[in-house]
Design a protein that fits this description.
77 residues, alpha+beta, 3 helices, 2 strands, 58% helix
Length: 77
């Protein structure tokens, strides 16, 4: 059976992040963005803002409140 590839593996392969052992806790690892990762994040945010504006313009205030409440609930869980 093929093991699922984790998001950190998928991001490390193209050079978006790198992983280092956490110095205080040698059992943990920390992930760091590379320069390419920072550029990809900036590009994603630049594309997200217009999309978010377009999507929210299609909703009424009460619909936006429902979506906001749902997102807050998901975030807490």
């Amino acid at each position: 059976m093929r093991q699922q590839q984790h998001i950190d593996d998928r991001m490390a392969k193209p050079g978006l992040i790198f992983c280092r052992v956490d110095e205080p806790n040698k059992r943990s690892y920390r992930l760091w963005l590379t320069e390419a990762g920072r550029e990809a994040a900036q590009q994603a945010m630049a594309e997200w803002v217009p999309l978010n504006i377009k999507l929210t313009q299609m909703l009424t205030d009460s619909e936006l409140e429902v979506v906001s409440q749902w997102l807050r609930t998901v975030n807490k869980r």
